[in-house]
Amino acid sequence: MPSEEDTVHYEGPSGGWGSVRGISRIFGKEWATPLATETLFRQNKPKGFMCVSCSWAKPANYHPFEFCENGAKATLWELTTRRCTPDFFAKHTVTELRDWTDYDLEQQGRLTHPMRYDRASDRYVPCDWDEAFREIGSELRRLDPKSVVFYSSGRASLETSYLYALFARLYGCNNLPDSSNMCHETTSVALKKVIGAGVGTVVFDDLQNCDAMFFFGQNTGSNSPRFLHPLQEAAKRGVQIVTFNPVRERGLEFFTNPQSPVEMLTGKETRISTQYHQVRPGGDIAVLMGMCKHVFTADDDAREHGRRVLDIDFIEQHTSGLEAFEAKVRATSWEEIERESGLSRKNIEAAAQVYVEADRVIGIYGMGLTQHMHGFENVALFVNLLLLKGNIGRDGTGISPVRGHSNVQGQRTVGITEKPELVPLDRYAKQFGFAPPRDTGMNTVEACEGILSGKVRSFFGLGGNFVRAIPDRDRMEKAWTTMRLTVQVATKLNRSHLVNGEIAYLLPCRGRTEEDVQASGPQAVSMEDTFSCIYGSLGRRTPASEHLKSEVDIVAGFAKATLAPNPKVRWDDWVGDYGLIRDQIAETYPEQFHGFNERMWTPGGFYRGNSARERIWKTESGKAEFTTPETLSATGWPDAPGRYRLITMRSNDQFNTTIYGYSDRMRGIEGTRDVLLINPQEMQRANLQEGQVVSLVGDAEDGVERAVFGLKVVPFSLPDGCLGAYYPEMNPLMPLSHHDGPSKTPAAKSVPVRIRASDERGDVTERLEPPGHATHPV
Ligand SMILES: Nc1nc2c(c(=O)[nH]1)N[C@H]1C(S)=C(S)[C@@H](COP(=O)(O)OP(=O)(O)OC[C@H]3O[C@@H](n4cnc5c(=O)[nH]c(N)nc54)[C@H](O)[C@@H]3O)O[C@H]1N2
Ligand SMILES: Nc1nc2c(c(=O)[nH]1)N[C@H]1C(S)=C(S)[C@@H](COP(=O)(O)OP(=O)(O)OC[C@H]3O[C@@H](n4cnc5c(=O)[nH]c(N)nc54)[C@H](O)[C@@H]3O)O[C@H]1N2
Ligand SMILES: [Mo]
């Protein structure tokens, strides 16, 4: 395996000229039009609109260009001049389109008309909005509410999300899975259990007051690039930044600020991570146990000199469970820790020593911790480490999950959840005069199981690309068509619109950058960022088509066509004035949303508060809880000869299933996504040549055949025993049953696979991936 000190040579740092080229390469002239530049200029500013990409903070003291390469891509993607019209659908059958790549589908541009699937001609045909609502409503009235699933991807505004959840509950179910079920659900469950608040405790200013940051499995440079600015400032201040990641991610190594003329001209780059450890995927529990072991040892030494490393006052007053955890740590040997983590004791101790010496520490993490069968333990142990020195609930400290979609955290805040206990149902009942369902609904994995078993009869997708994002895609797609009704609300065409139930609708909506004029005038919407700050967002662009409706309007359309009239539920008034929806939100959640309509324009957003930050622990014990892990490996399955841990990864040129292009600039992979990354020693052991085309087959021991073909072998710096390849192309290899226990987040970062050293299908009878990924010009 490569030594932990090895570096991979890239052409340049993250940011810099590469990021500017990254934008113009894809959008060419569109990028330079005055309207597009004007729109970008308003991005993430007070009275502007909030980026449709990630959920990073929108600071009060903003930069002139408060957007990043990927935020600009996401905005321009929505502003594209291309249109996917009824003519397009007349030319192509749905079966034909199923062979297209994700890239080619979204390249068709914005959807313009409501469409209904016509089975006889196997085509989408245009329809009337009223007609669509009428049929959807009458079907829903016939179906058992418990058999209907209302999915949402984390983009929909607080206003839309609140109404969508209300509609599902008025209709009679809590089947409200969302994209966070595949993402930071581990966070929502683990942090709730151990510190009593299911979101991060860090706020933006803490980044300016910390002495050390620990990064576990979060790829800042690609996925939250605006974070690079405070990170660069921190690095310049001398903050120790210690990273654990199997992949040497460029953005965590070096950064040139594309918004600094001096840095751009001189090519000056800032080193970001002071230590970089290429942990084995699934090895973080072992790392964290090792770090804690070092902290206990350092504390033993300090005691001999009458000092302490542990924050004893904090531990006594605020935590429970230290004894059992400490005993477990002391009983765990360095041999086990080294084996499971793939790192040396020396390196883990070096990282832990930074922790011992720092007064204020922030813990940052992403999918590298959450998407494992023992993701819960990953997150809980990270909290353990922070608790040892009172690093939660003080300025400049805390735990900071970096959330994904721009409003994924906010959706949960306003009621999108399958867990009724997270929603003030009594207030709902009073506010809207009905008896809300009290039974637990389905999350993403349960919805998939329900579709496979036939229990789910109808699926609504409020945005997103569900069939592409979930595990076991091939099995899921086959089951999909047995549903009675499928309805997708979207801006662009994607794979999920091409697998249809008996009755299927594709309904186009306005995007966040677009003007939304209703009875009372232009409407704003709002969202919540990863630091629990809530902002208004005002779209100004002319909508992509006159036939588009807003998401609020579409949800109200479903509801009016389905539910009996209720004088307390005033869909038409709400659509006419979104301020009235915010009044309803404030009534349901008064502590967090009082004065919502006024406060939403506070520069930097308004903070909705976090009890754990105040050291109020809303846990079972009333204290912050140490967790004692049962295992050192997060994978949840045994190693075996020839079995690899596959990391499914995002490139710098995609937003989830939206593929902007075929350039993973920061990893030096160009022109294709059909690659298999593997380290040179492993290549040799497996007798593989660079450029050879191979297949991956699933190795989950559950009797299900899984395979993906046509992957080109690329030597890459990775730990032994693991492979890297792109999400979503690899999703057919992920078993639905492989998910974190308590949260059911699918285990996308350690998928058990074998390499088949040819591209032949062998006994796998069907080609599982659409062909033709490999040949796109850059
Ligand atoms: N440009 C862009 N921005 C995005 C997105 C996008 O697709 N494109 N997606 C958005 C969404 S929805 C989300 S949730 C976030 C996702 O953002 P991240 O949380 O950064 O998610 P990933 O890129 O999937 O993986 C994160 C990192 O985990 C590492 N990793 C894998 N396995 C392990 C492990 O076992 N241990 C450790 N320590 N590290 C591991 C990977 O190498 C990778 O660098 O980004 C959001 N922002
Ligand atoms: N193997 C593997 N699988 C994963 C992951 C992984 O790391 N590895 N990551 C998981 C994660 S973190 C997530 S969040 C999920 C993502 O799952 P989703 O959120 O379901 O997927 P997206 O790709 O973000 O959805 C893209 C689609 O959203 C639609 N869209 C865009 N903007 C709007 C809008 O304003 N309104 C509406 N109605 N529609 C819009 C467009 O039609 C676009 O095609 O995937 C998960 N799946
Ligand atoms: Mo996500």
Automatic annotation (TrEMBL):
Pfam families registered for this protein in UniProt: Molybdopterin
GO molecular-function term, one example from the UniProt record: 4 iron, 4 sulfur cluster binding
GO CC list: membrane
Co-factor requirement: [4Fe-4S] cluster; Mo-bis(molybdopterin guanine dinucleotide)
Record's keyword terms, sorted: 4Fe-4S, Iron, Iron-sulfur, Metal-binding, Molybdenum, Oxidoreductase
Keyword Ligase listed: no
Region described as Disordered: 738-778
Comp. bias intervals (Basic and acidic residues): 756-770
InterPro entries found in the cross-reference section: Asp_de-COase-like_dom_sf (IPR009010), MopB_CT_YdeP (IPR037951), Mopterin_OxRdtase (IPR006656), Mopterin_OxRdtse_a_bac (IPR010046), Prok_molybdopt-oxidoreductase (IPR050123), YdeP_MopB (IPR041953)
UniProt domain Molybdopterin oxidoreductase: residue ranges: 110-486
PANTHER family listed in its UniProt record: PROTEIN YDEP, RESPIRATORY NITRATE REDUCTASE
Protein family per UniProt: Belongs to the prokaryotic molybdopterin-containing oxidoreductase family.
UniProt protein name: Protein YdeP
Species of the source: Methylobacterium frigidaeris
